[in-house]
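Review form for a predicted model. The reviewer records the input and the model, then writes brief findings.
Reviewer: anonymous (R2)
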Amino acid sequence: MSVYLDTSVAVSLFVEDAHTPRARRLIAGGGLWIVSDLASVEFSSALAIVHRTGRLSTAEASAAFVRFDDWRRADCEDAHVESSDILLAQQIIRGLEHALRAADALHIVLARRLGATLATFDGTMGREASRLGVSVVDA
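Model under review:
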């Protein structure tokens, strides 16, 4: 099964939080993991925030970046945002029927284009993905 990992899952794999056990169980279950360039930049932003708030030292954040990059190269398939993804995400948001932020709409569009199941810990995003015809993994 191809599983597109939302940023929330990726962060929980590399920074201990309430969702870390669920993220580790998901990955241990096996599958083809897809991580987009969008998720990668959001991961970087999330870790920078965790660092700025004092939850991670500079050394810990740097080590997490290295572990994430190594894992992504070795164990994940890359996905890249295309201009058509941006246009479709914009169309979905402008339809005013879905409670989605821009990045969440893009993640859903990417998962749908790739024919992948979406893994996310964001309940709203998961519900909206289902409404848009994207299967969501129960992590």
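Findings: The first strand starts at residue 2 and ends at 5.
Further findings: Strands lie at 2-5, 32-36, 76-79, 117-119.
Recommendation: see findings above.
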